[in-house]
Amino acid sequence: MKELLPNSELHYLKNTLTWGNIPLSKASGQLQTPFYLYNEQVLLDNFKRFQASALKNNIPKPLVCYALKANANPRLVSLLAKAGAGADIVSGGEFKRAISSRVPAHHIVFSGVGKTQAEIDTALTTDDGILAFNVESISELELIAQRAKHFGKKAKVALRYNPEVHAMTHKHISTGHRTHKFGLIKKDIMTLMKKKALWKNVQFQGLSVHIGSQLLDFQATGKAVERACKLLRELDHPFHFLDVGGGLGVDYSPTERAPKGVDRLDDYMNIVSENIHRHLIKPKVVEEDFRVLFEPGRSIVARAGLFITKVLRTKDSGANHFVIVDGGMNDFGRTSLYGAYHEILPFKKTTRPVRKTTVVGPICETADCFASGRKLLPMKENEFLAVADTGAYGFSMSSHYNLRNLPKEYLLTPSGDIQDISHFS
Ligand code: LLP
Fold first, then answer.
1. What are phi and psi of 113, to 5 degrees?
2. I need a labelling partner for 33 at 20 to 30 A (CA). Which of 120, 333, 352, 384 fits?
3. Choice from 69, 171, 253 to test ligand 1 binding pocket (greatest atom count within 8 A of CB)
4. 65 is known as an active-site residue
């Protein structure tokens, strides 16, 4: 019998955790744990669904600039580049990775509040020129202008607008409120636009706005896009794009699941599109070449990854039943950093009665915990389990904490092969 799991490609077939039509124990049961396993098909399907939804909702000339921070594995970035993705990058390292993965430079946006002069110089002097620096402060724009003058270039910039909204998400990943370090508030944008000397070596391309990550409620998104559109009109300056950032969330937990019949991706696109049409396209204030940029990370790659770990031993202590696994918070940190919920799925389904279980790693911190007091099937030594939906902000946030090796990364291809695509190892 096939038992469907929320991650539609993942299911139990004959009590065996199966991805697509590949039983995971057979495919990866011999590999050294802990490791990440990515699914090429799921990754590309997510990307195509994102693009298709933008087009279906009449977004003008959408360009999907994948946010490398979610997962910069060279193979995954190359697959996305080949499928037509641009890139949203925030460091010199991500710039290099995007270029070496064949993302065209003119499809790269460079975000981040702390760009260094060296990073600005590299992006400025690349042959093709990047699509835009998303500028986050007055002094950053001054530096870009100065460096562009130095190289005899015209830098393309978008101003990252802080729309002063409250995104409904974890406070550590909310970015669009006026108390946050991100972007420029309206008053500063108005001041900047008037500094004529600054614009000699800088071309204004438009605005960018990114209010936070893991958004499942799009009220603040709608407000932010509306304010950005109105500001674009007010600026009275030709513009070529509006970059609406990333942020579309993933329903990791049962309580986050979308109600029946609701497609969050479509809802999100609809809200973005409605505001752009109402405030920019209907009033005919956009140029022929006007386009909308997106910077999704999580929604493209989260569901395409599993973190696979093995049970080292179990331990009953006080009121707790612990399952101690060989993966730790250094490998996958979201549960310890944000108290995030991720499904824990044993490779083999047994008839053992479920019990309240706390799944922990070997790191010397109580935060090193993948699930606390969760009803799970009892697990025994050497059995494998998968932490689900870990393709985004998994490996990219891993560290050597406790002097541990970084986890390996494998790719499950559509033909069922497993390829070692590890980097930094
Ligand atoms: N654009 C900008 C300017 C960003 O800062 C981010 C994410 C994105 C795009 C991509 O957002 P996404 O579509 O992935 O939500 N480590 C945290 C998430 C941090 C997000 C940082 N910025 C987590 O594991 O939840």
1. -80, -15
2. 352
3. 69
4. no
Residue 22 corresponds to which tokens in the numbers above?
Answer: 């590949």
Query: 208: which residues sit within 8 A by CB, 6+ positions away?
Result: 109, 111, 132, 134, 158, 159, 160, 161, 242, 243, 244, 245, 293, 295
Residues of the chain with CATH 2.40.37.10: 2-39+302-420
Q: For residues 110 and 133, give the distance between their C-alpha atoms in angstroms, rounded to a whole number.
A: 5
Distance 67 CA to ligand 1 centre (A): 7
> CB of 62 closer than 6 A to ligand 1?
no
Residue to mutate (ligand 1; options 131, 134, 298; most atoms within 8 A of CB):
298
Residue 198 φ/ψ, nearest 5 degrees:
-65, -30
Which CATH code of 2.60.40.10, 2.40.37.10, 3.40.50.150, 3.40.50.300 fits the domain covering 2-39+302-420? 2.40.37.10
Q: Identify whether the C-beta of residue 249 lies closer than 8 Å to the C-beta of residue 218.
A: no
pLDDT tens digits for the chain (425 residues)?
566 566 668 999 999 999 988 999 887 778 999 999 999 999 999 999 999 999 999 999 999 999 999 999 999 999 999 999 999 999 999 999 999 999 999 999 999 999 999 999 999 999 889 999 999 999 999 999 999 999 999 999 999 999 887 777 777 877 777 788 888 999 999 999 999 889 999 999 999 999 888 999 899 999 999 999 999 999 989 999 999 999 999 999 999 998 888 999 999 999 999 999 999 999 999 988 999 999 999 999 999 999 999 999 999 998 899 999 999 999 999 999 999 999 999 999 999 899 999 999 999 999 999 999 999 999 999 999 999 999 999 999 999 999 999 999 999 999 989 999 998 74
CATH no. of 61-296 = 3.20.20.10
Which residues of the chain form CATH 3.20.20.10? 61-296
Cα 235 to ligand 1 centroid, rounded to whole Å: 28
Which listed residue (65, 229, 364, 369) is catalytic? 364
In whole angstroms, what is the distance from residue 239 CA to residue 162 CA? 18
Inter-helix orientation angle 264-276/40-56, to 10°: 40
Ramachandran bin of 189, using left for φ above 0, alpha for ψ from -120 to 50, beta for the remaining angles: alpha
Give the separation between CA 82 and CA 103, rounded to whole angstroms.
8
- Cα dihedral sign, 280-284-287-291: positive
